[in-house]
Design a protein that fits this description.
Layout lengths: L6 H19 L5 H9 L1 H13 L3 H16 L40 H21 L11 H6 L4 H22 L3 H10 L3 H24 L1
Helix pairs in contact: 2-5, 8-9
Length: about 220
């Protein structure tokens, strides 16, 4: 029995995860953004609390009035009632349906912080279950024999290279506005031009580096 699952099982799992996450949260799927928000959970929780407080229109108006009084030292004048405007004629023909989806230029807030924390925990637990059930679970601090053979066998140098590579990957992810899950799975599925360019860039770079390691070095 092979230790690896068939390729179509992985493709089906990724499709179910991506589509299910989008349907459940009405947000784009992405791991790097979720990780960044969970790391700064105090700030994100405060932002969510403020947004919930301003969801009510009356609470929003009260907050704006209070902020105006604090900044200018006086309350804004009461609005003058406008003159009545004659009603527009009612069209007799069929009314076109309203466009679906968010307004152009409107950017939805990320999924709730708890949802993204559950996503990250589920990725870890799912990978652990897959490794244990396949009999391939092995706790180690390197990338395997192939990495030691190609790069270095020194444990200290190996950890330093992995740490540096992780920092560079994180920097590139934030610079590109998303990772392989956000751009490759979700963005390309939505035919986003930015995601298509970003995915082609990091996959092309990965292919070039792999060719360099295995064929040249």
């Amino acid at each position: 029995m092979s230790a690896y699952w068939p390729w179509w099982a992985g493709a089906l799992g990724l499709a179910v995860l991506t589509i299910g996450y989008t349907l459940a949260t009405d947000r784009s799927f992405g791991v790097s953004g979720a990780w960044e928000r969970v790391l700064h959970w105090r700030r994100e929780a405060e932002v969510e609390r403020r947004e919930e407080g301003l969801a009510d229109e009356q609470a929003l108006v009260s907050a704006l009035v209070a902020a105006t009084a604090e900044h200018f030292g006086t309350l804004p004048a009461a609005p003058v009632p406008a003159a009545p405007v004659p009603a527009a004629p009612v069209p007799t023909g069929p009314v076109p349906p309203a466009p679906a989806g968010p307004r152009r230029g409107a950017q939805a807030r990320p999924a709730p912080l708890v949802t993204q924390a559950v996503l990250l925990v589920s990725i870890f637990v799912g990978g652990l279950i897959a490794a244990v059930t396949s009999g391939r679970f092995d706790l180690r601090f390197d990338m395997g024999a192939g990495y030691r053979h190609l790069v270095t066998g020194n444990p200290v140098a190996m950890i330093a290279l992995l740490f540096t590579g992780g920092v560079l990957v994180g920097f590139g992810t934030r610079l590109a506005g998303g990772c392989s899950s956000g751009h490759g799975l979700n963005g390309c599925g939505r035919l986003s031009p930015v995601s298509l360019v970003a995915t082609a860039t990091f996959f092309g770079t990965a292919v070039a580096v792999s060719f360099l390691l295995w064929k040249v070095i």
